[in-house]
């Protein structure tokens, strides 16, 4: 018997190596703020299953993104490069899938790979044995998915549950002789924050406290004043907060003539049956997709309760803004509830099958998000709430449970870290760096002291001026350009909420020069030519 086993080991060395490698699951949510997670200190809302990952491994307290919007963050995950190098600086563009991405390298080294859920890169992915992805942002209810055959199929149900189901189906049908890597790309908690029916009203009993910066006047911060992302003016009562929002086919008859005119213009000579008209109508927009049972549940909650409450209160001014804030957080957290519940299902499955012993589980969000800080929702700015994102990782036998990592980590580091875990050498063009040694508490003398950032999207959808800058442990420096042209500097020890721009304060002159030199060094290191040209021209 020993001779037979020895012969098999000699004949199949690749399989022996592959089987010894860990499986890796990367759960990537959308716009899930770190301050919304109980492992990060939220005491009003619990996220027990994300916490399981953090408590069983490590929680990163300074995980920073390179460009705080959805698609570019995913492009950085795939490439380990900043937006100006991977070519995906803005949402709703087409990502170049033919550049080197780390899943391809994992495939070449014996891994089975999958991406399920939101990708949002305008192209079908390469480097995955299996994918079933949402078109663009996707929908919460009865969503469409695009599979490996480029077939778009609509599925009945709630998106977070469906994503988990697809993952389990793929996992059960995989080749068990090989390790696997899978991205579970969640839609939650993206705007317009539609909870699962069972979670409607889950947090109606909580009166969420206003952030201390909620009524920020943006003094000394021109770009912050110039944005269009406030709960007060930008957040919509109907589309975002579901006040007087029609659901399902409620408005079909009154919208039918306009729909027919549009179809006649775009499909001349074609006749549509009543069934086809309704099917086409139901595919347009988030709320029309609801079936009769879903529509009834939404009408009962948002129509009979929330809209009625709104109408009765007849609010205006600051009281209206406060009401909108409460509704925003209640829907946001209710949407996140299903996200955490499904993460629990995944963790339970790994435990029940024994896979948890050799499976790394990572939870992260694509970027941070504002939950009323500065009066905002959304992200984009280099300020803390949108710059910093959640990241927890569980690696049995390697990362000590309860580890907290305070070092400055960039999402450009995610790809090389995964490659390092898999025993695959990172390509030279990757701009990030593996932080696995930090997770293992190994000494790393030359780890970064400053993280680089560059945001581009302007003027739509939120009129945030493009900017680049850096963040150190104690300071943040940024250069805004296009819409607003200005420099900002914040002392994070004295001003953690980033309210007072001290760039022109004489007492910070020496620190400012030091940070300016650091910023230029990072621009040169990462070869950001657009930023360099702007940097070299004084205001």
TrEMBL record:
It holds the Pfam family SGSH_C. It comes from the Bacteria. GO terms for molecular function: hydrolase activity. Residues 372-522 form the N-sulphoglucosamine sulphohydrolase C-terminal domain. Keywords: Hydrolase, Signal. The keyword Transmembrane helix does not apply. The keyword Nucleotidyltransferase does not apply. Residues 1-18 form the signal peptide. Belongs to the sulfatase family. This is Sulfatase. It comes from Chitinophaga eiseniae. The lineage of its organism: Bacteria, Pseudomonadati, Bacteroidota, Chitinophagia, Chitinophagales.
């Amino acid at each position: 018997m020993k001779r037979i086993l020895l012969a098999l080991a000699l004949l199949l060395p690749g399989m022996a190596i592959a089987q010894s490698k860990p499986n890796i699951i990367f759960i990537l949510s959308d716009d899930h703020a770190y301050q919304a997670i109980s492992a990060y200190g939220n005491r009003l809302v619990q996220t027990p299953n994300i916490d399981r990952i953090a408590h069983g491994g490590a929680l990163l307290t300074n995980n920073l993104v390179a460009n705080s919007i959805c698609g570019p963050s995913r492009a950085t995950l795939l490439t380990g490069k900043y937006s100006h190098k991977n070519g995906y600086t803005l949402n709703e563009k087409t990502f170049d899938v033919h550049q080197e991405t780390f899943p391809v390298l994992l495939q070449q080294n014996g891994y089975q790979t999958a991406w399920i859920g939101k990708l949002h890169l305008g192209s079908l992915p390469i480097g995955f044995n299996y994918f079933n992805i949402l078109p663009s942002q996707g929908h919460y209810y009865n969503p469409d998915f695009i599979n490996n055959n480029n077939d778009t199929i609509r599925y009945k149900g709630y998106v977070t549950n469906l994503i988990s189901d697809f993952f389990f189906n793929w996992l059960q049908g995989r080749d068990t002789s090989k390790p696997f890597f899978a991205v579970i790309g969640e839609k939650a908690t993206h705007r317009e924050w539609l909870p699962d029916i069972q979670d409607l009203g889950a947090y109606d009993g909580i009166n969420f406290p206003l952030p201390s910066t909620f009524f920020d006047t943006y003094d000394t911060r021109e770009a912050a004043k110039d944005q269009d992302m406030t709960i007060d003016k930008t957040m919509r009562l109907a589309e975002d907060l579901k006040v007087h929002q029609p659901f399902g086919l409620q408005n079909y008859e009154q919208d039918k003539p306009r729909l027919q005119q549009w179809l006649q213009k775009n499909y001349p000579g074609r006749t549509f049956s009543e069934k086809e008209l309704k099917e086409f109508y139901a595919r347009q927009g988030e709320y029309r997709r609801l079936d009769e049972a879903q529509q009834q549940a939404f009408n009962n909650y948002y129509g009979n309760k929330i809209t009625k409450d709104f109408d009765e209160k007849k609010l205006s001014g600051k009281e209206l803004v406060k009401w909108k804030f409460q509704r925003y957080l209640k829907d946001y957290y209710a949407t996140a509830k299903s996200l955490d519940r499904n993460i629990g299902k995944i963790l339970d499955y790994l435990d029940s099958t024994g896979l948890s012993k050799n499976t790394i589980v990572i939870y992260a969000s694509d970027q941070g998000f504002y939950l009323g800080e500065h009066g905002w929702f959304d992200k984009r700015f280099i300020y803390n709430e949108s710059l910093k994102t959640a990241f927890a990782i569980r690696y049995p036998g390697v990362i000590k449970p309860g580890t907290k990592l305070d070092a400055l980590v960039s999402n450009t580091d995610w790809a090389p870290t995964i490659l390092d875990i898999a025993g695959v050498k990172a390509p030279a063009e990757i701009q990030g760096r593996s932080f696995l040694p930090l997770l293992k508490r190994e000494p790393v003398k030359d780890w970064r002291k400053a993280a680089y950032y560059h945001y581009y999207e302007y003027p739509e959808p939120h009129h945030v001026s493009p900017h680049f800058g850096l963040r150190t442990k104690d300071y943040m420096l940024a250069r805004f350009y296009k819409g607003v042209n200005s420099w900002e500097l914040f002392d994070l020890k004295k001003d953690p909420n980033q309210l007072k721009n001290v760039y022109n304060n004489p007492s910070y002159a020496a620190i400012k020069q030091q940070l300016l030199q650091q910023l230029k060094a990072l621009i040169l290191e990462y070869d950001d030519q657009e930023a360099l040209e702007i940097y070299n021209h004084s205001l």
